[in-house]
Write a structure and sequence with these properties.
The structure holds two protein chains of two kinds. By secondary structure, chain A is an alpha+beta fold. Chain A has three domains: 1-52, no CATH class; 58-92; 100-225, Protein Transport Mog1p, Chain A (3-Layer(aba) Sandwich), CATH 3.40.1000. Chain A has six helices and six strands. Chain A has a six-stranded antiparallel beta sheet, sandwiched between helices. In chain A, helix 3 packs parallel to helix 5 (125-134). Chain B is 76% helix and 0% strand. Chain B contains eight helices and no strands. Chain B has helices spanning 4-27, 30-46, 57-75, 80-83, 96-111, 114-126, 130-137, 141-167. In chain B, helix 6 packs across helix 8 (141-167). Classes of the chains: A alpha+beta, B mainly alpha.
């Protein structure tokens, strides 16, 4: 390395991290020594600026919020467990009405809860598994679940979930096992925005609704590979 | 033996202040920064089981914060142009000249491209090495070094130019 290249490399090193360059490396170059002093002084000024005043009790506020979130999460879980205990034995054992137009009800329900598609936080796996187990599904859904609650689809109690699949939200309704399968001719349904399909998941009927037609078959194929669904 | 809650409280008390400072310089708004830190630490609590090594806590939290910040942009809940505020606290000025110089430097830092500003903040606020910055920002050491080089070069050029204009 010639002297000029060496000087350029040292200058670059000074701009990258002035405190990391030893004074010995610069002992024969007053110009670079001066540059180091100036950059170190500037770094010191920046460090002082970076030390912004932190809002009082920031940590306490966060811990308080966490405690509320934890409590409400337990409340939600308890409420869900209690609700499930009370209703699952009743609703899921009622003979449900086969509904030839269930697909259209599913679409209307998706519109009714459009906000569910915008959820961004993943629900804890344990919560989702508990909900699924409460309706007799013992297998985990191997996808991030962002929304899950029990709803009624035209009198049929179902678990309404929004899962993230290939970067897009996909709505899944899990219906009770005794709901009669839809007419094969109506197992796929759609409107101008959404497209849906009825599949089977273990003993349950499920309705899958998405805005992207290609996702519907990909979703079905992926679950088939996992031996979860028999179409 | 530490419970999960004890571990979490220690994490919050140790890192919340610096996370807040980093967030301020990242998103350029104290109000957004406070929300961001709260969201970051709530997410950290939900995923605390992922943190196996206390030494990795700082990098882990910074990565969560960066992800939360990106998520905010996706959700477009905030219009940063509207929420930008002066970062310097409205404390009394001891010396008007020093205050003016600091204010000028602050504006120049805030005007740096985000990636340069972030690398400089991680280096000078947390004392992180180039490799550590590369890990947090999910890039390589050469890129980090380039960002640091350009950040200081730009600051120096702009401050010199501002000083020249003042005296010229």
């Amino acid at each position: 390395m010639d002297k000029h290249t060496d000087k350029l490399a040292l200058r670059r090193a000074l701009y990258t991290a002035p405190a990391q360059v030893s004074t010995q490396q610069l002992q024969h170059d007053p110009e670079l020594q001066l540059l180091q002093q100036q950059l170190l002084a500037q770094d010191e000024q920046i460090k002082q600026l970076l030390q912004l005043e932190v809002p009082a009790n920031l940590a306490d506020k966060i811990l308080l919020q966490q405690k509320f979130a934890r409590r409400s999460s337990w409340r939600v879980m308890l409420a869900m467990a209690a609700g499930t205990a009370l209703f699952s034995s009743y609703l899921f054992w009622q003979p449900s009405q086969p509904d030839s137009d269930l697909g259209q009800h599913a679409l209307r329900h998706v519109y009714h809860e459009l906000a569910a598609l915008k959820m961004v936080n993943e629900l804890p796996t344990n919560n989702v598994s508990a909900l699924l187990a409460s309706i007799g599904v013992q297998q985990e859904l191997p996808l991030p679940v962002r929304y899950a609650r029990f709803c009624e689809l035209e009198g049929v109690r179902s678990l309404h979930m929004v899962v993230l699949f290939e970067g897009a939200p996909v709505t899944v309704f899990v219906l009770p096992s005794d709901v009669a399968p839809m007419d094969p001719a109506n197992q796929q349904f759609a409107d101008s925005r959404f497209i849906g399909k009825q599949l089977r998941w273990q003993q349950h009927q499920i309705l899958v609704v998405t805005e992207q037609p290609e996702l519907l078959s990909a979703f079905s194929e992926q679950l088939n590979k996992l031996h979860l669904v028999n179409t | 033996m530490f419970t999960e809650q004890t571990k979490y409280e220690a994490l919050v008390r140790a890192y919340a202040p610096d996370l807040y400072r980093y967030a301020c310089w990242l998103c350029r708004s104290p109000a957004v920064a406070e929300d961001l830190v709260q969201e970051t630490l709530l997410r950290a609590w939900k995923n605390l089981h992922q943190l196996k090594d206390a030494k990795a806590a700082r990098g882990w939290l910074l990565q969560i914060l960066r992800n939360e910040n990106a998520r905010r942009f996706e959700r477009k809940q905030f219009d940063y142009a509207d929420t930008e505020q002066d970062l310097l606290p409205a404390a009394e000025s001891f010396d008007p000249e020093i205050s003016l110089a600091a204010d000028r430097l602050e504006q120049k830092i805030l005007a740096l491209p985000e990636q340069y500003r972030e690398a400089l903040t991680l280096q000078l606020l947390f004392g992180m090495t180039g490799d550590e910055i590369a890990e947090v920002t999910q890039t390589n050491l050469n890129t980090v070094n380039t960002r640091l080089f350009r950040a200081r070069m730009l600051l120096r050029q702009q401050l010199e130019s501002a000083a020249g204009a003042q005296h010229g």
